[in-house]
User: Fold these one by one.
Assistant:
Number 1:
Amino acid sequence: MSVRSTITSQFQQVAVEQERTLAPLADELKLVQSGLDSLSFAIIVARLEDSLGIDPFSAAVAVDFPVTFGDFVRLYENFGK
Amino acid sequence: MASDGLSLWESISLRGVPAGRLQGPGAAIALADLARGSALGGRLEELRGRSVLVAARDQLTAALALIELDGVARRMVLCTPDLATQHLPGVIRDAEVDASVYDAHSVPEARVGVAVSAQPQLEGAQAPRRASLRSEWILLTSGTTGAPKLVLHTLASLIAVLATEAPPAAPLTWSTFYDIRRYGGLQIFLRALHAGSLVLSDPGEEVGDFLTRAGRAGITHISGTPSHWRKALMSGVTARINPEYVRLSGEIPDQAVLDGLHAAYPQAILAHAFASTEAGVAFEVRDGRAGFPEELVGAPHAQVELRVQDETLQIRSPGTATRYLGADAPVLKGTDGFVDTGDRIEARAGRYYFMGRRGGVINVGGQKVHPEEVEAVINAHPAVRMSLVKARRNPITGAVVTAEVVLKDPAAAPDSATVVREVTESCKRALAAHKVPAMIRVVPSLEVSASGKLVRPNA
């Protein structure tokens, strides 16, 4: 699975578990409008660390906090490059 | 700023009628109007000398009630908005509550004598308020069983750190993501009353809408937990305010959130404070780096004394709470006056860093989770023999809750996936969302110590 599809399926799964209505995942979707709360994002980031083996938020170098879904995907795709 | 024996109202009007405002999402109150007006429908005198449950749900209403009640009520019990009704009888008993203040969003407490209705607006000219006693402020904080612990403060202990600071040259406008019924929010409430104005948050409001409102009110100072601030950063709404001072407290900030806020507000003073309901405010660090300078520990003649015992931070200061209320309440501070924070710290290269909580208490976005409470729910599942709930570090909420589960009879039990699903469902039914394990793993065994106790990791 690509990084993008792994992320997409985690968003969908956590939305179901947290009983939240997920907005359609387009690159320009603002995370604040995704329907997910902080706890949902926390769970997504933890699960992605398990499945992708990386946590770009805790990297040694400063990260720009992602604002859109596209930012979020790129943060993972570009990690370590 | 003098506080000795003064009531809150006397303290904030010491230098003349206060000029600031309290601003909720729907209404705003000029503090000056509180000199004679009342949010309690002119019934303040009925509450004199009583132990008052402040159960008004609306923050502005509760704020007005607290200002009026200090110096009049014997006790004010600050109900947090998430206090579960099942815990109310215990709170009422332990705090010897004999009156309550409620609003349109809460119900009058039938178990107590006097119930007074409050509203987020002021009514008519009552006689000037008369302070006759030093009120006790009772704050609720989470306990291991899920029932809250009742922490006794006085106005003097709540504003101890504040009282040593010079009043600001020009009025400030504060805001906070916190609810003012929690220690972190109450600190900002009391600061703001002494310094100018306060813009209150609202639990139902999107972070962007709140910051827009705060920006329009021209806030100069604002506080929140690292989790609040990460949410603001990830919402792309930080530009809606232009603060001079940004404060983080309630959780341990990592370097990423400090860097993110510095980039968003390069002109602002970026401060992170360490405080707890029991220990009070310990310190504020303004260098934008995670952790705190080593020299704060053991500093001679400091108002707030810090020491490390068994790798754990302990604090003694005029800002610590007095004691817990209740017949079987634990001891809040040692005979030498130090409060054990339960936070483990470690020195590296001249700086102390936080290493997690002793006893495994988990901080999820500023909200404490006691592993035992979650384990009790998991262990109630018929197929589960035992479980271990612990923290997993997380860059969004500081930590998330995870669980390891041992099955009674792996051969006879339904498959692991079914047990995990059922355990998750029962946790969701019984616990607040932040307490539900984000991950549950079925493991063959858990380590048990020679004394028969589950071995808990330290962080």
Number 2:
Amino acid sequence: MPKLNPRHRFDTYVVGSANRLAVTAAKAVAESPGAVYNPLFIYAGSGLGKTHLLMAIGHHALTVSPQLAVEYLTLDEFIESFNAAIAAGQGEAYRRRYAEVGLLLVDDVQFLTHRREMQAELLRLTSTMLSSGRQIVLSSDRAPHEIEALDERLIQRFAGGLVIDIAAPDYETRVAILNRQAEERNCQFDPSVIETVASMGISSIRELIGAFNRLIAYQAVSPAPLSSTEARVLLGKTMSTGLRQASGLAQAPPGAAAPESSSAPPPPPAPAPSPASTGGDEFGSFLTEISSAVARQVEAWRGRVAEAVLRWQGEGYRTTRLEHLLDEDTPVDPDAILRDYEEDVERLRRLEAEAQELDAQIAGTPLFRDPDRVEEAGAEVTRVRDGLSPPPGPAPIWQLSAFVESAGTRMALHAAHSVLMQPGSQYNPLLIVGGSGVGKTHLLHAIGNVLAGRSGEIIACLRAPDLVEELIKAIDQDQVTRWRARYRRVTALLLDDVHLLAGRDRTQEELFWLYNHLAETGRQMIFTSTVPPGELAGIEPRLRTRLEAGLVVELPAPDREVRQAIVDRMLTEKLGAPDAELAAYLAGRPVETVRALQGLVQRVIAAAEAANQRPTVGLGRELLEGNPAAPARRTSQNRTSGLLSPTGGLRSREKVVWDWPDVADRLIEDLR
Amino acid sequence: MSLVNFSSREITCKIVYYGPGRSGKTSNLQYIYGRVPDARRGRMVSLATQTDRTLFFDFLPIDLGIISGFTTRFQLYTVPGQVYYNATRKLVLQGADGVVFVADSQARRLDDNLESLQNLQANLLAQAVDVRNFPLVMQYNKQDLPADLILTPENLDDALNFRGYRSFSGDALRGAGVFETLKGISELVLKRLAAAGPGAS
């Protein structure tokens, strides 16, 4: 069965003037694959619904003819499986795999750029499919002629069918999309709120839904119904025009603003008449009758075995066991042998899928194609699995119970709890935005800790620079496949400081594929960033739009309520009972971050310890506001540890020169 | 020839359209050719004289794809109807799995039909084929002609079909009865599979 997202159907696709032509063509193709518009090439900017349309074709075609073999894959998967097949010496089997596919849906073909071998393979496959009347549908974020270094023959082949674009949705379509989202999520909004969101000029549907998710999350924690003004303020914070310009239709080629003015060639003439209308179905009915006659006459068990041999050979499996069966005159129980064989194949498939996640190179070996060696394959996967270290997990010091809830953090906490209730399906991904030191990392790790406490969960929780570093190391050691496998098996990916991936193109590309993999398999992703997605500089649009496809929540600077709770807790931990006056004084200090506040409290406690007294407001004030007689040395607000100086300030041991060189030595040094 | 090859999992049926000259055998094949999708048919080989009569034979291979795990192919042949090409007819008839006898329904061609039918039986007998059990169907072609020119299927059955083969009315030019005839003979041919079993040849 193709891995089609069940939600991506025609009836969930909102049709507007921007995509009507594409949807009409897609429906025509789904109704009679191979008969009209073959190949069909759909292109559109990021987040405009290409994948949805592609999968909708697959669903509809399967509804019309359930026997049709439909295959959906991204170009990346196409390349990976081809490489694995070639590595395993199974090139022919790989090609045979597509021989039975009646409808092939290939997503993201823009990545064909500079991949000559894959272009040749796709050209060959396209030609084979076209000549045998089977349908191929492709999608890309740009028109074929705009894909850099794409083989001219492929461009012509695509142009021979229908090349069609999807423009950004117009206002009415955006309203319709939002209404449908509200309906699906069972949320009530004032029509003016929907209109406000629709009129904000967000062109990418993915962004639009991300923005809407934000409103839903806000509404969930807000006692009063959301007003259009609030919606505008709420979205205005995270949606920047920069993003809107950088993504979506901004990438569409000139002339593609509306389907009517599309640069795509005009559609070919009306669909060819169906065989039935010309009486040509006579052959079809003849074939049906012959098929049943053959089935009746061939010894039933031989027919079943022969069918199984062809099927499994076509899928690249060794069928020695079944072929031996065919040579026998009267086998004891052919059906039991067939069942055993198919169970072994099924087991091999599961093992291969696991091996694919662990190490794609192993997955491509012939071992996984021979049901007689299923035990051996099982042992191999166990060996690889045992050798794979788990990715870095969340730090246990950050717990959700220690995260202070206040008006400012309520929405983020609500989102965190929603994610914990339904990981992977409620808000995926969750992007936590906030300045440095406001508690993003705390919340991220805290969610990770709750998830990690559940059985069978593999949580990857790390900082973006660490991810870059790991990748560099993997590249250096030629272990990229294993590195990918490590992350592909996680049940949740929690990436801190995603903005630090700016300019790290390779890591961004890997994260893009990892994102797609995790999103497809319904696994939760949470990211943190110091800036809203719209202001993420140096991050590719395709990744940026994905970051806000789920929910973007903001963690503001700690308000008085948060500061008070933090100070109380710290003083209680250190002193047993907090000094209310001191706590109120410290909580009232003008700090921007939780980290700075913690620094202040630690300074006061350390100063009191050094003076061998209990910390008091007086001491705090003297330390923090300065003492004219012996002014406290100013230190960074971010310091949370260090040495106490005689004057009460903090100094780092590394910054103090303890052993001065002899002056004479220094002079000689200078003379040299 | 092997009708069913269990080791290579192939079924190949050779069906010969037999009948007097100008009875419409080639028209049958041409109609079928026009209805079979490109991917399913091979090139139709037709060796004809300048006056469009079949000189040697017509050959139309049809690939029915994989049926019950067997790659199934039909090979349709016609023989030249004219009496003087008997050597060719014998050659084409060799290894046939079934025969469609295409009779010309015109009353004036009744003797030609009889002569051709006798010739068919003689040629089959020469190949040691038992005509009583051999898959054969009759097609009474040109039933579209004015009624005063032709014999009815019942009349033709009385005159030609004394062995009680299945018979079909036809208008090969327009296709009436063409596929019915092909289905009829195919079913008979395939029925032999059960009797023959594995290793049949």
